[in-house]
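Support case: user asked for a sample of complex input and structure output to validate their parser. Sending the pair below.
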Amino acid sequence: MSDNSKHSQADEQLHWLVRPATIRKLWIGFSVVLALTVVAQSVIYVKGYFGIDAWFGFGAVYGFASCLLMVLVAKVLGVVLKRPGDYYQEPGATHSTNDSKRVVEESVDGT
Amino acid sequence: MGLETLSPALILLLAAVLIGLLRGHARTAVVLLAPLLTLWAVWQVPDGVQGTVKFLSYYIEPVEGSPLRRLFATVFAIMVFVGGLYAYRVARWYELSAAFAYASGAVGVCFAGDLITLFLYWELMALFSTVVVWCGGTPAARAAGIRYAIMHLLGGVILKVGIEGVVVGTGSIQVQPMLAHDFSTWMILIGILINAAAPPVSAWLADAYPESSPTGSVFLSAFTTKTAVLALILLFPGEPVLIGVGLFMVMYGIIYALLENDARRILAYSIVNQVGFMVCAVGIGTQMALNGAAAHAFAHIIYKALLFMSAGVVIYRTGKSKCTDLGGLFRTMPLTTACGIIGALAISSFPLTSGFTTKSMISQAAVDESLVVVYMLLTAASAGVFLHAGIKFPWFVFFQRDSGLRPKDAPWNMGLAMVLFAGLCIVLGVFPELLYSLLPYPVEYVPYTAGKVLFYLQLLLFSGLAFFVLLPLMKRTETISLDTDWLWRRAGPALLRLAEKGLAIMGAVIDRLRLRSQQLAQRLATRYLGQPHTADSKERGVFARSWPIGTTALWIAGLLSAYVLLYYL
């Protein structure tokens, strides 16, 4: 099957999307787009509803800052809330890996 | 009783029965045609109450039409069709049958003109959604299904208490706007909010949905919470409590999704997050806000089902659902990856997707009412949605690192279902008027202004930057996160065990005391009431023994003086 040969080639040689060179280009491209969205505000008028949200680059700063805050809050809460994956399992019960059994049972389609 | 009092929901209920009876192509035909027939029937329902039926001593209104009701019924019918297409080759017949009965309950609620009809369809949903959870088929699914059933039956009881109270208090069983101002209306509100996965019981959703089968979770994601949103719009528009509840749900969904490792559980938490937007909008309660809630529910059902479908394909093909086990699947699953990304962009309300044209209405409603804090929090949450669902889900499932998995792409029917919904996400994003014309109130809102698009692009793209900058902080761990369900899954049983132990200790103490007092009484009896063994060595009861003369004389003297005393009293 041609699929198999394609797979083995892909395995030997990294997929183009995950080559370090591509990733570097993606970062550069992404940075340019980010800069453009901020710079564009000098041309396009962003209507502010409450004063501060009309500031130059407010969306960018607010988006980044609120994400930073949410990730940090999640991190701190995680210290308190995180438990091992089998936390709720009865001590005696066998570990059932969710879906693997079902897939074996149900792989009936021929595509 | 005329034909007009028959709800379109009955078509799906009949189909659910037929799915059980038929086999092969006939069953497939029912699965695919019944939702389309329902869709047609939904659009045949005119506005207003379509006749009454006497039930017990009440006149109930099984079918009442309005643009809002038709809108929700429409998206439910579309959902059943595409969900059926997605599921019919893989799902067991009983799962399909239960899913159709479940959807029938949802469509029934849409057209319920009175509280009694609403309650009946509500319970139909609770029963058959539990069956869908059980169809996960694992011990974990069985346990989660039982917890799910308990939660929803409890919610049903609370709702029923509220309905009884309102019916007794006002004498009306009409579905009409009210505010939570007394016990009964609070009970109704709480009963509905339990189905909306509101705090403090949001945990049932992320507990149950990810345990169902890959196909079951697609159906589950659509109906229960959105029916609750519809019920809130019909019964509690402008209820101020809902703004706070909605904002809490929005933030809760983001934080928990950020902590989560299981792909479907991430999506489950983001349902809570998205329903939070709608609940908040219902709380704002203006025409713009209610339009926004309805439109967002419509768009949400489609892109959320799409996300669950892409996750479902991954689980179906690999048997894995944890981010720590997945990654790099884009190589062999391009279609699933593309559809997952479109769903993820839509949920993040990226311009040109359905999320942008609907969710921004809710923000606009907050602006119109000058709710600065609400607007700012919703905007922050929009950034957070991109973080937890928009990037995190596709990144950890399809990209991230190479997990070595090379599964095949989706089977054709699953692929077609995903393409249909992905197409709808984009069509509704590019031509929002299609949806706006179906909304309950006239829409003057213009989603695409250059300034608004630029603002959202800044907001979303910089949250994307935040994701990749903070990636080291978001390393996946094989953990779950505690939620309020800890109270009844851990603390409750632990308390019970403690109480059991306490009672056992008390029982032992009482036993010992009893034994001691018995021995003491025995000794006293032996000492003062004579020996148990008399001359013939046979054991006798206390009063049958031979007593010392002195004791007998004392008893007689005591009894006689008591008699004399009583005689003179």
